[in-house]
Design goal:
By secondary structure, the chain is α/β, with parallel strands linked by helices. The strands form five sheets. The protein has a seven-stranded parallel sheet with strand order 6-5-4-7-12-13-14, with helices on both faces. Helix 2 packs across helix 10, helix 9 packs across helix 11 and helix 9 crosses helix 13.
Amino acid sequence: MAVQIVKPRIRGFICTNAHPAGCQANVQSQIDLIKENTSHKTTGLNALVIGASTGYGLASRIALTWGYGAKTLGLLYERPADDRRTASAGYYNTVAFHQQAQHDGFFAQSLNGDAFSDEVKHETIEQLKVNFGKIDVLVYSIAAPRRIHPRTGETHNSELKPIGESYTGKTIDLNNEVVAPVTIEPADDREIADTIAVMGGEDLEMWVSALADAELLAPEVTVVAYTYIGSTLTWPIYRDGTIGRAKDDLKARVDALDEKLSNQFGGNAYISVNKAVVTQASAAIPVVPLYISILYDIMTAKGINEAPIGQMHRLFSEHLGPGLKPQLDGERYIRLDDRELRQDVTDVVTERWEQINTDNFHELSDYVGYRRRFRNLFGFEVEGVDYDEAVETELTF
């Protein structure tokens, strides 16, 4: 037992610890949203969620469990607590998920390991054979900085860079809390290739092939991966940059998977384009924290802002739930970013972007809300949590 008072260790966009009670409160609020907005259905679905501990992956797992009674196997790559530090936020999120799922009578299991590896794929397949059977829904929600390729052993590191020419814009210096200029040099060919290797669609392709070979894909199986397109303000370092190239690779592979699944199983593969959200990964992308701070101020005022759980509730209740046919755009995307990209939102975002500086960014953005949401990710500044109370940090799921 390790009982201690946990205070945040945060500098800029890095948080090195997490609060178990705050993470539990975060997970419970997401579960409560699904309970309040859906009438529980017992569908008999089996779901595999790859990247199940934070953000859209965790929200997907919650929506599938409490919305449809799905049995879920969640894959995560998170740090448990030790003598020196707390567990990671995703680890505590998973503990909280399992506690409530067990309380409410839902079957759920989780594996902690590198989903890029052949070892975890093999372990997952064995777990599915023993405890689940064929998978009806596969959610792919990995956001990783690096990948060790299972065939070559080579380590690939993703890069957040423009392509072709350097980019100069503005961002929030999160350490000093000022609006500052930022210049990012363009990626070279190796950095582009490495980013595609990490964030493209090859690993998802490997997962689907492994599950198909093991005869673990159900008739009419649904595969969904997540991406982001966003406003033209972020395109130089996102849509038109290294990440954009990786997402193009994901799109091409998902389209090919859709044809394969349709022919072999009567199934489908889709990409859901989701809205901008506060994550540790997005906080590390220059420009994005400032963009989100402006965006959220506008969307919240209009009553149209959504957290990941709201987006995933909409995804499964309107597009991918049993018996539903998703609404697709001309490129075969499911567009959950429709509210972010409404003209009345993007016009104001662009106007404020031109005006914003250190003197006025508190008035023209919700930076305080951004900072709170960032700390909430790690269980800090969560309403109703007593941070002066000692908590158990060495938990298991």
